[in-house]
Amino acid sequence: MENAYVAVDIGASSGRLMLAEINNQQQIQLKEMHRFKNGFKKADGHDRWNIDYLIHEILTGLEKIKAAGYQQVYLGIDTWAVDYVLVGQDGKKLADPISYRDHRTDHAIADLTSDLPKSYLYKKTGIQFLDFNTLYQLYEENEALLEQTKQIMMIPDYIGYVLTGKAVTEVTNASTTQMLNLQGRLFDEDLLAKVNVHDSQFAKLVEAGTPLGQISANWMESFDLPETQVITVATHDTASAVVGTPGVGHDWAFLSSGTWSLLGTELNTPENGQLAFENNYTNEWGAYGTYRFLKNIMGLWIAQCVKRIYGDQYSFSELASLAGQEKPFQQFIDINDERFVNPDNMIEEIQQYCRETGQAVPEMPGEIMMAIYSNLALFYANEVQKLDAILDCHLNTLNIVGGGSNIALLNQMTSTLANVTVVAGPNEATAVGNALVQMISTGDVQDLKAGRQMIANSFDLKRFEPEADQYAGVLKRYQDFLNGHSKELV
Ligand SMILES: Nc1ncnc2c1ncn2[C@@H]1O[C@H](COP(=O)(O)OP(=O)(O)OP(=O)(O)O)[C@@H](O)[C@H]1O
Ligand SMILES: C[C@H](O)[C@H](O)[C@@H](O)C(=O)CO
Ligand SMILES: [Mg+2]
């Protein structure tokens, strides 16, 4: 009987339980068993996630898997980064987790680094400066709550703890705290002290692929579940997405395109030099001792907000079709401007930005969406050039994975502007990477290289080549615009 693997992948906008099995042709077969919405809501003065709802959805999905005839499964959990749950002395959460988009950290970097030079912090951690990194969230955390806290658990670690009773801190997601020391590969004592947190308040650090334990008997009594062995995978969803990216050789970059666009490349040693620091690139830890040298780009969050403002009357593919009927590059937008992190009305924010910069104001849905896609493609192309410069290399291929890999228009614009081959897919690379780490952990797959080959042989990947003479000079004009207008995410 072949092993069955359940990948629980919860992004900022949606979650899903995907069942992965290896068929006789040594291909990974992926089946969506359960999907649910995610999102934060205002509660007790902050934007909060509903973590109990997410756990209930996981158990509901597992019941569907049992009902489909699976008696025994492996399971891995990955979610978005930086956010955490505070667990009290009684082992229960003290509050629902606050979202990284909450405004409590809007000025946290300036406050925390007033007596701690950013260059020093970057040398220690190699992590990009995003004001919602865990370090700054803890700096702004409610002191009374922190004093009652026995354990600080990152979201996926907390879910694994609730399901199995076992607490660990998995390194790929822990690195996004900006509290891990690159040299010692442990929590940095100075940074813990800076936010009044003790080493003991984090469970032991473990690498991706470490077995966690069985789902506890109390859940088995309350829900009709398969016997479930939980494995701690690369619990940062982007880390799982990178594992699930079928890159070949050494000259490939990845773009994990979902709520965020995470553009970067996989390194075996961190790159925390001056150029990387100046360009705010990060060295998030990857699976198997790798580093994810990447940059956070605002991503399709902007499209998600637009879709919501239109009352969800358009599907994402309909919005993409409307965009395709419009001319590209009608206005330049620094999509990483902090004003787009969590505005009250994204459409108005985009329109106001265009007014303030004396540009054509997009009005119709198609114009708005084309403005978003055009500027995402330009931003991606600009960052590919920066990656080449920082790493002194030439990345020929950009593997685009995640929901955004479905957008052929955006894939093609990106290929042409960046002058690279785009390989699009799998769109569920995060779930695939989650399952692959489980398969490597059980020995069903030999290693990461063999797994990526298997992925390439299992999923329909689409290639996009640069279209000569298209958009000549646009990227240079965009870069000049950015140089005059950039107020990046910091
Ligand atoms: N067919 C499509 N046409 C256009 N856009 C699409 C299509 N399918 C997905 N998308 C885009 O992909 C996004 C969702 O990507 P994905 O499913 O990777 O995100 P997620 O995993 O839910 O969230 P996160 O990025 O936080 O992990 C949507 O917001 C949408 O913009
Ligand atoms: C806040 C993080 O940067 C974000 O979660 C990103 O890393 C991610 O996980 C996108 O899916
Ligand atoms: Mg995702």
How is this structure best described in words?
Helix 13 (316-324) packs across helix 15 and helix 15 runs parallel beside helix 16. The model has no long low-confidence stretch (mean pLDDT 97). 37% of the residues lie in helices and 21% in strands. A hairpin with a 5-residue loop joins strand 17 (282-285) and strand 18. Strands 17-18-16-15-19-20-21 form a 7-stranded mixed beta sheet, sandwiched between helices. The chain contains 19 helices and 21 strands. It has 490 residues and is an alpha/beta fold. It has 2 domains: 5-237, ATPase, nucleotide binding domain (Nucleotidyltransferase, domain 5); 247-425 and 460-490, Nucleotidyltransferase, domain 5 (2-Layer Sandwich). It has helices spanning 51-67, 108-112, 118-125, 134-139, 143-147, 155-164, 171-174, 189-194, 217-222, 237-243, 274-278, 301-309, 316-324, 346-356, 365-391, 408-418, 429-442, 448-456, 474-485; strands at 5-10, 14-22, 28-37, 41-43, 46-48, 72-79, 84-88, 149-154, 169-170, 180-181, 186-187, 205-206, 210-214, 227-232, 252-257, 261-267, 282-285, 291-297, 397-401, 421-424, 462-464. Bound molecules: adenosine-5'-triphosphate (ATP), the ligand C[C@H](O)[C@H](O)[C@@H](O)C(=O)CO and magnesium ion. The site of the ligand C[C@H](O)[C@H](O)[C@@H](O)C(=O)CO has 12 residues, from helix 10.
